[in-house]
Specification:
Organism: Pisolithus tinctorius Marx 270
GO cellular component, one term: endoplasmic reticulum membrane
Structural class: alpha+beta
Strand order of the largest sheet: 2-1-5-4-3-6
Pfam families: Longin (PF13774), Synaptobrevin (PF00957)
Helix content: 40-55%
Oligomer: single chain
Radius of gyration: 27 Å
Protein name: Protein transport protein SEC22
CATH architecture of the largest domain: 2-Layer Sandwich
CATH topology of the largest domain: Beta-Lactamase
Keywords: Coiled coil, Endoplasmic reticulum, ER-Golgi transport, Golgi apparatus, Membrane, Protein transport, Transmembrane, Transmembrane helix, Transport
CATH class of the largest domain: Alpha Beta
Amino acid sequence: MVRSTIIVRASDALPLAASVDDEQTEQTLQEHKQQAKLIFRRITPHSEPKCSIESGRYTLHYLLADNVVYLTIADQSYPRKLAFSYLEELEKEFSSSYGPKVESVRKPYAFVGFDTFMSKTARLYRDTRAASASRGSNLDKLNDELHDVTRIMTKNIEELLQRGDSLDRMSHLSTSLRTESEKYRKAARNVNVQAMIRQYAPVGAVALIFIILLWWRFS
């Protein structure tokens, strides 16, 4: 279940909008909201664009797009696919409504009115069991179109905060691994081409000499 959501500007962690949580939710998630603030301080516009951070009974999922971070706190058992589908719904609407204004705002929670859309969308994603019991539910339709999240980075909150892991460093490491992998693929192709040349070059040379001899003889 999606419990709480907050939207901040990535470049300076300025809060832009947040869900209006009841008193019980505030008390229950107090520690995790503090962790979310620490995560925002570590995120830059160049950080990993999607990440799930496990913390006890809950998981903090965030989506980074166009210098805006969309983060939701959900139950650990809540499907990651649904969590990121929910965040993508928020990103589309927020970008369409407020995108050009994000860089210019100076006061916190300048787009507090976005809570109405967040609350409405969260209700669609709230109870996966009830939704799956009804074949015609909106959530079932969303499930049919969910993207693959197997490549989304997953971290533990202790690894991220206590050991000082950097989200930028993780992103650079991921990019570096992809670059090195591409280099190895190119090197492997070059080796295969060279092997083919060594294998067929003698045959080609003999064939060329034979053609030259025939041409010289009958010319």
